[in-house]
Amino acid sequence: MNEQQTKSISKFLSLILRHQPEVIGITLDENGWTDVDELIAKMNAKGHRISFDQLEEVVITNDKQRFAFSEDYNKIRASQGHSVNISLGLDPQEPPEYLYHGTVAKFLDSIHKEGLQRMSRQHLHLSRDRETAVKVGSRRGAPVILNINSGAMHKDGFLFYLSDNGVWLTDHVPAKYINF
Ligand code: HQG
């Protein structure tokens, strides 16, 4: 497959494994997993032609490692980014002293007032390094990078999770922990 084909399949997998499994008639279990054989059969039935080897190629080569197989390869899920209500089953972890969030200027007034919210996703996404946050913010325009006092939040009892693909997740960052 060429880069364009793998990207197009990756985008479709993000849609069905994070947001709208019903588009091809699959269901996600409480931890976000779905059956690999059924996924392949239903994708093909809907005209999204894919073999197991091609699915594996998309998972392995994905730039952000967005998807993961279960150990026995019978199931697959998105590692983060869901809007559907599932639990990733991650244990809380101690975050680094500072994390980063990439956003754009038009959201800043609202972020000053109510802090960072998870919006339509299950969690708010924070990045380990500024460079990643720049990429995240750039999806919406000129990026504005917020530095988050995650160490202080952790001391104050806020919970943090690290997704399988290295994204830090939390529920809400009150404005007092944000260095604007
Ligand atoms: C903003 C991509 C107003 C927030 C990326 C963001 C990431 C507020 C937008 C992942 C706000 C939500 C997630 C508030 C937050 N008022 N705006 N109080 N609090 N916002 O897409 O972090 O390629 O849900 O700054 O790389 O941009 O899909 O979150 O701009 O890792 O794997 O509301 O999605 O990964 O947008 O991106 P999103 P995000 P994938």
Automatic annotation (TrEMBL):
- Record-level GO BP terms: tRNA splicing, via endonucleolytic cleavage and ligation
| Segments traversing the membrane | none
User: What are the protein's GO molecular function terms?
Assistant: NAD+ poly-ADP-ribosyltransferase activity; tRNA 2'-phosphotransferase activity
Similarity comment: Belongs to the KptA/TPT1 family.
Keywords (alphabetical) are: NAD, Transferase
Q: Which residues form a coiled coil?
A: none
> Can you say what this protein is called?
Probable RNA 2'-phosphotransferase
Q: What does this protein do?
A: Removes the 2'-phosphate from RNA via an intermediate in which the phosphate is ADP-ribosylated by NAD followed by a presumed transesterification to release the RNA and generate ADP-ribose 1''-2''-cyclic phosphate (APPR>P). May function as an ADP-ribosylase.
Q: Which HAMAP family match?
A: KptA (MF_00299)
**A Pfam family this chain is assigned to:** PTS_2-RNA
Superkingdom in the source lineage: Bacteria
Give the EC number(s) listed in the UniProt record: 2.7.1.-
Cite the PANTHER family for this sequence. Answer: PUTATIVE PHOSPHOTRANSFERASE (PTHR12684), TRNA 2'-PHOSPHOTRANSFERASE 1 (PTHR12684:SF2)
